[in-house]
């Protein structure tokens, strides 16, 4: 069965639109864009459009990428102190001259709707309420929507990034999954992935995972967004090659991608709701 991330994301957004209308005020999301990365420009436009559609005030703060780091930090501090702003994100990647993790550290925990900050990561690790990074949160929502329980299941996450693999592993552990994290240095990868009841792949290599990596009837979640040799969008999983071996699978595009924006918007709503109390 193909999991329709686009449809599920729309359901999330429709629900958010209703909940935001009942808040009595307009939540605000500040997007800090540094430099001129073509992909980032597209992602930011999509986020601003999604904000507008559901009643969030999306605001773009643009830097050329020539400024001193202190100017960006001053902007972040000012945004933290602005009562109409409930979420702040720095669009990744940033130009090489800047330390992205350092810049993110100046976003206050309650505004950290990307969930990348040390505070929210620590709260997640402690299984306490926190703002969870949007992609892991979106994956958990996909599984929940399809009534795929992770409790007691062996989940293999291929990828250990701070924005997907690590927070996702923690979120899965908090739901009583048995989690294995594999990565570029893992030996005998197919032997490990073939033990997975649920295989989640986020390694950034086009069509890397084929049928030989997958157990019969496994659930496969493909986080990758790549271009194949024909310049077509594809994931980290060879979709056609594995389709007949899996019980559930996401496609690229139309799987995890739409959920990432939907769950970012959900984090803005949750931040706004908490701030209104």
What are the segments in which pLDDT stays under 50 over at least 5 consecutive residues?
none
Tell me the structural class: alpha/beta
What is the topology, as strand order, of the major beta sheet? 1-11-8-7-5-6
The tally of structural domains comes to 2
Give Rg in angstroms.
19 Å
What is the arithmetic mean of pLDDT?
95
What is the compact description of this entry?
Helix 7 links the parallel strand 5 and strand 6.
Can you lay out the helices and strands and say which pair or pack?
Elements: E1 2-3, H1 5-21, E2 28-34, H2 38-54, E3 57-63, H3 69-80, E4 87-90, H4 100-104, H5 118-125, H6 134-145, E5 154-158, H7 165-173, E6 178-182, H8 189-193, E7 198-201, E8 219-222, E9 226-227, E10 233-234, H9 239-242, E11 248-250, H10 256-276
Parallel strand pairs: 1-11, 2-3, 2-4, 5-6, 5-7, 7-8, 8-11
Antiparallel strand pairs: 9-10
Helix pairs in contact: 1-10, 6-7, 6-10
Keywords summarizing the entry:
Rossmann fold, 277 residues, single chain, 2 domains, alpha/beta, three-stranded parallel β-sheet, 11 strands, six-stranded parallel β-sheet, 16% strand
Detailed description of the structure:
The structure is a single chain. The protein has 10 helices and 11 strands. The termini are far apart. The strands form 3 sheets. It has a 6-stranded parallel sheet. A 3-stranded parallel sheet has the order 3-2-4, sandwiched between helices. It has a two-stranded antiparallel sheet with strand order 9-10. It has 277 residues and is an alpha/beta fold. The protein folds into 2 domains: 24-112, Rossmann fold; 134-257, NAD(P)-binding Rossmann-like Domain (Rossmann fold). The mean pLDDT is 95.
């Amino acid at each position: 069965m193909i999991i329709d991330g686009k449809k599920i994301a729309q359901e999330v957004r429709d629900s958010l639109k209703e909940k935001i209308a009942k808040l009595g005020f307009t939540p605000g999301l500040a997007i800090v864009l540094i430099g001129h990365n073509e992909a980032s420009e597209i992602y930011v436009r999509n986020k601003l459009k999604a904000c507008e559609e559901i009643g969030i005030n999306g605001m773009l703060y643009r830097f050329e990428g020539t400024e001193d780091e202190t100017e960006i930090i001053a902007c972040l501090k000012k945004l933290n102190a602005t009562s109409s702003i409930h979420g702040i994100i720095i669009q990744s990647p940033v130009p090489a001259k800047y330390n992205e993790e350092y810049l993110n550290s100046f976003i206050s925990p309650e505004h950290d709707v990307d969930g990348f900050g040390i505070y929210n990561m620590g709260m997640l690790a402690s299984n306490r309420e926190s703002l969870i990074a949007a992609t892991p949160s979106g994956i958990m929502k996909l599984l929940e929507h399809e009534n795929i329980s992770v409790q007691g299941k062996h989940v293999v996450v291929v990828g250990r990034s701070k924005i997907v693999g690590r927070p996702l592993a923690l979120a899965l552990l908090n739901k009583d999954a048995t989690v294995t994290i594999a990565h570029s240095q893992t030996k005998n990868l197919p032997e490990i992935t073939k033990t997975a009841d649920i295989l989640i792949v986020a390694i950034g290599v086009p069509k890397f995972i084929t049928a030989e990596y997958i157990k019969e009837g496994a659930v496969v979640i493909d986080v990758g967004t790549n271009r194949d040799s024909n310049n077509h969008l594809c994931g980290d999983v060879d979709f056609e090659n594995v389709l007949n071996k899996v019980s559930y699978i996401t496609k690229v595009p139309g799987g995890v991608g739409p959920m990432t924006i939907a769950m970012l918007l959900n984090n803005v709503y949750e931040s706004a709701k908490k701030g209104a109390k």
